[in-house]
């Protein structure tokens, strides 16, 4: 299988003009963080291709992103695994999670329900499917239907309710009727399948018809489905549907048949191979017909034994006196295999067809209404069919804006750097990653547990766990603040740059979390006052109930000071409140615009700074001149120019085996002195082994950085001292 990283949603204003605040995003992530969710093509549950899971919430100044990981199945075995996964997911989502509501609904329907009922796999409400149950529930009402349609005024539309108790968004195709929920016909759903969402765009337009006087409006219902009031909620899909604006004068469109064929990309999502348009005179009345042609069976009868091709169809007539639409209806034409192949392969046009198909009417409008609404209804009924707009010569203004914005984003691309994976500077703000994970065991003897997952490749063959040496200073400061912890025993590595990755500190209480944040602030404040151009990453974690919540940070130490200062003054009651406060403070840096790209900083469950180790092929030799080590690098002329222009040099990587405190003379690991915090305290590495070098533009040993050209061959040298780093 192929695995990809992506973004599921953000807190930015989306194409539907919806804004999802961080608090809602955190709650949505909380509810689904431990679930594996099937992934489909174009929100179509009849086209599963893999699965996805949410991996966290990434926050940069100006925007929060819900990140996810998706896997696309490739083999037969993987697709079978996916099928079983979908079965389990559907049972949990539609049955297990709503057991009490289902029992309540079945109890209400005990006089009309049959033993063959099943739970409806829809996201709009708790409902059951049972053949002709609506007819048995409302027999007298159904007998008055004409062509299977009911007057829309006999149905009460359903809207969501906001947190303030106000009327929210329309729940499309769902209606109240005498203590029950009824649903628009299944064929209003994407690819005509009960598994998919109802056409929201169409029903938003369709509801406008209620306010037009003297208009007769009818709709078809799903006769096999009844829902439980109080369980209804919006089923939101953030997918932009192209919707063009047409010319207002319908009389300018010439009579005759026009056939538009679809491109492969659109067909993959919609299964539409083409659309045919037909203007003609019928009994002296200007008439319009439109039908799309699909190449996939999408309707089944007899328990799946009979497969048919369902194609959306529209019929309309204009008032000869006013020129306005006076009739408009939408339907599905059903074809068997022989007839659909005849339509597609033999290029039979719409003027010669129709009698070889079954006709199921879905909606109807009679009496004059505006051309603009006529266009809106047709366009939205044919959701995901861009050929409608192409035929009418419309310009999709929103889509054109999307393309413009996309081009602008693509024009702003960070220069790739094969020497420095990612760089942040003072004023860029912090990058924060929030996630849930299983609980971490903390010994009763300690307040925290240190979670360190760093690994380092030694001699290109042996992988060992490491701890960056300055982490010891961080732990000593935590101990000074009264936190009981177990000092780790592992391989200590000092990277000779001013980039530090601290481990994650797992805490048992929120009070301890704030103490850890105080220690981070104190260290960053000390570095900032010293003028250190230093980058830091660090993580905190809190055990809560059945899971752990985790935050990791990456950024310049100066920006830590700005963000943490106010966040620590007002202590919040919950970890999520703290997250929102940190996000708010960090937004003061302005919009980051996804620079650097989030996935260059996210490594597993944290954000941290990666490094590129200098490959031995670049090192042509080393020598000592007094206390300075001269390193000769064999690089190309282009690489040398880039290194010099960006002040990129080499910094040593040391395996620290023993170090002393310069103030008290004791082992720095065990003494009570804390460098950077206490005056006149530093650390002297008395026993170490240099095991390599890393590329950097932040050398602690040689902060200005300099490359010297060796004229004889394209080699350049950089100097760095072996004295203690700044």
Short description:
This protein is of the alpha+beta class.
Structure description:
By secondary structure, the protein is α+β, with helices and mostly antiparallel strands. It has 5 domains: about 1-75, no CATH class; about 95-225, no CATH class; about 250-405, no CATH class; about 430-605, no CATH class; about 615-720, no CATH class. It is built from 16 helices and 35 strands. The radius of gyration is 33 Å and the shape is elongated. The two termini are about 45 Å apart.
What share of the residues lie within helices? Answer: 10-25%
Rounded mean pLDDT is: 86
How many distinct beta strands? Answer: 35
- Biggest β-sheet strands, sense, barrel: 9 strands, mixed
Number of domains: 5
Q: What gyration radius follows from the Cα positions, in whole Å? A: 33 Å
The helix-and-strand class reads alpha+beta
Strand content: 25-35%
Distance between the termini: 47 Å
Shape: elongated
Low-confidence stretches: 240-246, 709-726
- Helix tally? 16
